[in-house]
Write a structure and sequence with these properties.
This is EamA domain-containing protein. This protein is about 80% helix and about 0% strand. It contains 13 helices and no strands.
Length: about 300
């Protein structure tokens, strides 16, 4: 099915909700693992274990490996833009800023994606969609609460997280152009394998992980959650949505992540939900309706 960037069907809305839960957990897992692991080593473990988890599934599905340099080239490009750069920037940024602020900055990803896709001539710059994304970011700020703490290097951490969000926008463009006919499972696995090669070099030069003390059980559990849920499974879902509904639509997941995080805290941990969080969720929901466009068209017909 060709991507349709004007509408998202019920199936892909459901997949977006699942993806928001999977990716939302990455901020928690990062925060836990960074207590004992340096950031680039953590990213290396994330992509390497994620690839290792998916590799057996390739054999089950009968998906072969890319052939030669030309076959692997697109996956190295996607791995660089979708994993190596944003994962590294965001996880380093989280050493300077709180996870809540990082998730707010991550919610700017659709803005970068809309801009990149329009500049590349892939999608029309529709004011309805731009207005909806801006409204969604406002909703995330309301839901999370601005509450920026004063920390050393905070401005640097903010820039790093924004750089990661921008990289995701370029990754969506590259994936749409280079991998539109690739199976989601193969795309997810091969880009993680390519990312592992690149991150192994970066981590070896910058952090020399073989000299680090062995992390504890809690850290390993966080790394496994990050690799298995927030990476391996999440990317299968991500590339499925990208293939069906297009680049800008799949990036709307970053607006849903803060909402699902709060709902999970309420359902699983009994955490209270404040009126500010309810207001933020309503604004985000309204933004998604504006972006989708169908409700607005229905109201216009009624009028």
């Amino acid at each position: 099915m060709p991507p349709n960037d004007n509408r998202i069907d019920a199936r892909d809305w459901s997949l977006l909700a699942v993806l928001s839960i999977l990716w939302g957990g990455s901020f928690f897992f990062n925060g836990a693992a960074l207590r004992e692991l340096p950031p680039l080593t953590l990213v290396l473990l994330r992509v390497a274990l994620g690839a290792a988890i998916l590799l057996p599934l390739l054999r089950v599905q009968g998906i072969g490996f890319p052939r030669g340099k030309l076959g692997w080239k697109p996956f190295f490009a996607i791995g660089l833009l979708n994993n190596v750069i944003p994962f590294s920037l965001i996880v380093i940024g989280q050493t300077f800023i709180p996870s809540g602020l990082a998730s707010i900055l991550n919610a700017t990803t659709p803005l970068f994606t809309v801009t990149v896709m329009a500049m590349a001539g892939e999608e029309a710059l529709q004011m309805r969609r731009v207005a909806g994304v801006v409204l969604g970011v406002v909703g995330v700020v309301i839901l999370r609460g601005w509450g920026i703490e004063t920390r050393p290097g905070q401005g640097f951490g903010i820039l790093l997280c924004l750089g990661g969000a921008c990289s995701y926008g370029f990754a969506a463009l590259a994936a749409r152009r280079l991998l539109k006919d690739s199976a989601p499972l193969g795309t997810a696995t091969f880009q993680l394998m390519a990312s592992t090669v690149m991150m192994a070099v970066v981590a070896a030069v910058m952090e020399q992980p073989w000299h680090l003390p062995a992390p504890g059980l809690t850290t390993w559990l966080a790394v496994l959650g990050l690799a298995g849920l927030s990476t391996a499974l999440a990317y299968i879902v991500f590339f499925q949505i990208l293939r069906r509904s297009g680049a800008t639509n799949v990036m709307l997941v970053t607006l849903l992540i803060p909402v699902t995080a709060i709902l999970l805290g309420w359902l699983l941990l009994g955490e209270p939900i404040s009126m500010r969080e309810i207001a933020g969720a309503i604004v985000i929901g309204s933004a998604l309706l504006v972006i989708d466009g169908r409700v607005l068209r229905m109201l216009q017909r009624v009028a």
